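User: quick one - fold this with zinc ion bound?
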Amino acid sequence: MIEKSLYDDYVIDFKENFTTEDESYLLIFNQKRELYLNESERIPLVSLDYLSNFNVNFCIYIGTYKNKACFTVNVHDTDDYYKLQDVYEINKDTYQIATRAVLVNDWYLLNQYCGKCGSKTQTKEGSMSLKCPKCGISFHGKIQPAVIIAIHKDGKLLMARHSYNTRVKYALIAGFVEMGESIEEAVHREVKEEVGINVKNLQYMGSQPWPFPNSLMCAYKAEYDSGDIKVDGDEILKAKWFSKEEIEEHQSDISIYSVLLDDFKRTY
Ligand SMILES: [Zn+2]
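Assistant: Sure. Structure tokens for the protein plus zinc ion:
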């Protein structure tokens, strides 16, 4: 997981109709949310004329990156670009700013029309929101909070096999925060639903933007409290306690899972 702050290199801003003659960073996404990188596998630092090579849907100024203007661009071109997971393996800095850029891109793309009356929305001067001129509703960027939980018991870590995730055999308990509940309530509910046990002594371990598609992962460590492991056999196929020697290494450290795992290994 990336430890440095997004704001080490980036100054946040938003302007819909901003142009510049200067070289700028162009974060160009196709309709599959893949990022265009140049032949050196970098974000193009070029003038806006460069976009004449693309079938541009929109281009929005999102602030400065490494002291240069920075734009998120949406194109209709059908070429394959780089998946965000692959961008992470190539260059973590690029992935970090691309996460910001793809989420702004999604927000702008998906809120062109009011969800209530269908009118064309308009940007509101000075704020990053799209507003319906008819009913006055503003559409801001949406982030879906989610929780991931490392449950400890007598030097072991609880991991579960999810039916929807075929890439890894066993993973930590995780799920979305439901409407109307707190993040801590989501932790207790998800654990109970997925593996049937109760946990106690929650400890917040950090958060991570997770653009697949628009989550904010909140990581917790918890102690086993009571109950027997019981899985539904549908979403969760199996769950069991692992010692640190038994845990399978993941191919990538892209997820905050790696922080929870390192903490577990340090503790025992
Ligand atoms: Zn409306």
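One thing worth noting: The CA atoms of residues 154 and 219 lie 20 Å apart.
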